[in-house]
Amino acid sequence: IPQVQPRAEELSELYRELSQHPGLTTACLGPDLTTQYGGKYCSLYTEWSQRDLARAENIKFCRQYLIFHDGASIVYSGPAGTCSEIKGELLSRESPSGTLKAVLRKVPGKEKEKEKQFLEVWDQNRKVKSIDLTALDKHDSVYDDDQFGCLAWSHSETHLLYVAEKKRPKAESFFQSKAPELGTSDEDTGHPKKEDAPIKGEQFVYHDDWGETLSTRSVPVLCVLDIEGNSISVLEGIPEHLSPGQAFWSPEDTGVVFVGWWHEPFRLGLRHCTNRRSALFYVDLTGGRCELLSEDTRAVWSPRLSPDGCRIVYLENNVLGPHQQCSRLRMYDWYTKHTSTVLETVPRQAWGAFPGIYCGALPGMCWAADSRRILLDTAQRSQQDVFVVDTATGTTTSLTADALQGSWSVLTIDRDLVVARFSSPSCPPILKVAVLPTAGHEAQTQWICLQDAPPLPSISWSIRTLQPPPEQEHPQYGGLDFDAILMRPSEGSTAQKPPLVVMPHGGPHSVFTAGWMLYPAALCRVGFAVLLVNYRGSLGFGQDSVASLPGNVGTQDVHDVQLCVERVLQEETLDASRVALVGGSHGGFLACHLIGQFPDTYHACVVRNPVVNIASMVATTDIPDWCLTETGLPYKPDALPDATQWAEMLHKSPMRYVDQVRAPVLLMLGEDDRRVPPKQGLEYYRALKARGVPTRLLWYPGNNHALAGVEAEADGFMNMALWLLKHLQ
């Protein structure tokens, strides 16, 4: 015990240092300007996020750069001034010409007033409009999330489009004694208008919402601000069975294009679920007519209009099934009304060929200036790369094949200037820029570093590929392999033979790409080797890999992780007597399985919001379809599992093996988790306590599934590291 305090101070200093590396979130290129000598340059505005441990919050700051270019290459680029913190901005968007900027801002209310929202318009030197949306009372809060939210300029730059929660009628008690304050009167009768009088008995009506991280999103509406007239209108004509979002102006500003999600018979969780029934729609501003633009039996998202206003590309998945899949790229021609498939799903990943699309969204600006090519980033096995896609031919070219190995993301492309983010397990995020070469020459893209980050030479990493043994092959999807990223300390007292921390990812249909990750990097600096396992079912390996896992959770994924651990312990100089597990969500599900199925391998375990009993989770989660799909059962909203299906869910759960667990377990639970409610972790905690297994539970109020609050994340790291150090001595 006396040794813990100095070690804790050492760990907190290490965490403080590594958590200061900022993340790059947004980039926006200003209009081209010409110098007196004829050279062209533009400004680049970037936004970054950083943890502020003293304030226990994530802060945003901005930094500007200048890029001098000749259209074919970048002549010079560099920062213009230092960075400054951004406060209160929820959304911001530059107008098409780059001369105006719209900002949605939150402002604390005075005394007992609630927080207010203002929509501002800025020109290049001042704020020209500031509209109090809360006072206008046309709708409830504006959405600032990336699921529904948008802030879109009309092409004429006279109107702004955004999404907000529909205004609900005021409600009051049946026993309200005070005369309500009446609103406007009807001109003919003098009586109060019906919509202004509060409705009795509606105070406690339940309103269905969109689940994890979207609990305040129930009935979104599309709203338009007329900038000159200072007036706001809520768009009519959107069918009541749809929740609209991701909207933008149609060519010629005649109407609005949006994604509509079906919400009947009830809403399922939408965050990280690209398999919810949805379609692309157009609503006409004059007649209020709503028109379907895509198939209405699929899941669609991320619509993007080409610069010439002729084409819309969007991503498409099948409805239900795995929450994340290999997606199709579809294109709708505005004038011919024809829809084509640009890229189909890819059954198997093959090096040198396009791996398939596995991304949460297309970049906000993804079109090249020719209105023919688009840019996207996607997982390619255990890396993430940037590709250019010719929408006319479906050909793809990697822009990062010959660049640094790691994780690349497109932030924006404008006038063929590309802005990207790069990171690796030993390199925090850095800012890169390039000029997109002409069609056919994209492989010659030259990336220039605009904002560097100090690399961590004390961490080395590599990617290894594993093939399951014949008896563990999938009967339908044989021949699948999988990857793992091994990080290890390259200096320090444990560098020669470090203890091993095994981290399977959540999802299960997600992936560790070789990018910057705070927890693994910090554990490596403490002296642990870290094994990040992309078991079969991960994204980036083809749709067959994704399809192989449902029905086999608790066996196929568990055996893949165990095979990987045994192979690494054989082939690397690691301390096989000191192996631990760390995992969250489905990664926690796997960790709890592994300490039960292979109790001799693991000597400590840390889990964050783990799934431990699928049968008890199905009735409490925002994604009941996940419980049935991953168990290998069909999901229908009106179906009730029978006794054999309940048994199958329990049979595939870690709780089945709790009697074999010996490793000490640290649990971290988010009180507000809607995805894997904390009752799951409590169930496991009580089962372990009853069996005398050393266990500790950390309960984080105000935190949801990700446990991403700055305070919870920092406290979680400290407790995790101290738990591992204590039990792997």
From TrEMBL:
UniProt-annotated location(s): Cytoplasm
EC number: 3.4.19.1
PANTHER family (alphabetical): ACYLAMINO-ACID-RELEASING ENZYME, SERINE PEPTIDASE S9 FAMILY MEMBER
Pfam families associated with the record: APEH_N, Peptidase_S9
One GO term of the biological process aspect: proteolysis
Domain of life where this protein originates: Eukaryota
Alphabetic keyword roster: Cytoplasm, Hydrolase
Gene: Apeh
TM helices/strands, residue ranges: none
GO molecular function, one term: serine-type endopeptidase activity
Positions of the UniProt region annotated as Disordered: 174-197
Quaternary structure note: Homotetramer.
Chief site of localization: cytoplasm
Biased composition (Basic and acidic residues): 188-197
Span of domain Acylamino-acid-releasing enzyme N-terminal: 12-449
Name of the featured protein: Acylamino-acid-releasing enzyme
